[in-house]
């Protein structure tokens, strides 16, 4: 065989039939998932991380469970029994979360984007106000373990989970918050409470202005009486202006409502509709800037 004495071929990993396979060649499609991977590559030797990519792409990770401050997973290696992986991140305290929520509530676009399932670009600034970070900053922010015999940290099994976590964050940015200690509903409750408190502080000024407003009730004219003038303009529209521009969020309503009950396809419904809405936006902008002939 030409191996020589003392040579043993490296065992190949067993290929599970129902593992979690990476859905794209590039890990981290969204900025927040990319930021997660960039943070890891800064804290961990990139060579060690790269060994987990093939495991993530071939479906060696059997499951991933994300709870407050902890990720557990099983990864199939060359042995019959899957290896157990654990990744822990220290959750933020309640006081830190309240401080971060106050900063987020000060920007209405934060709540709008989070409700639509997107992570605001300036989210890290809100956490910086609370003097914490949403993403790991120091090597001791992440504590990992694996039941495999490899003493490297991270081993390829841990690295595979790292990469697949990035893909899961792509689809649901609230998993990042859960890892730091708060669920989506808890985050939204915090934002509503902070915004309500801010509105309550501004309420007296609003009431004082309301006293000076005179309400004039106009008579309601039935549609039947005006049917002949339905298409007639009531006033000159020469000064009327409109702005044509991209929406701040693609498919915001679809993302807010979520996947409909009738959808049973394998494709990601939200992702498909986002692409469709983005295409409609581009077509509308092209038509508008060409003079509206299309």
Can you describe this structure?
There is one protein chain. This protein has 294 residues and is an alpha+beta fold. Among the domains are: 31-94 and 134-181, no CATH class; 247-294. Helices cover 45% and strands 9% of the residues. It contains twelve helices and four strands, in the order H-H-H-E-E-E-H-H-H-E-H-H-H-H-H-H. It has helices at 31-43, 46-50, 53-58, 94-105, 108-115, 123-129, 156-171, 174-179, 184-210, 223-226, 252-257, 269-289; strands spanning 61-67, 70-75, 83-89, 142-146. The protein has a four-stranded antiparallel sheet with strand order 1-2-3-4. The termini are far apart. 24% of the residues are buried. Mean pLDDT is 78; it is low at 202-213.
What are the defining features of this structure?
294 residues, alpha+beta, four-stranded antiparallel beta sheet, 4 strands, elongated
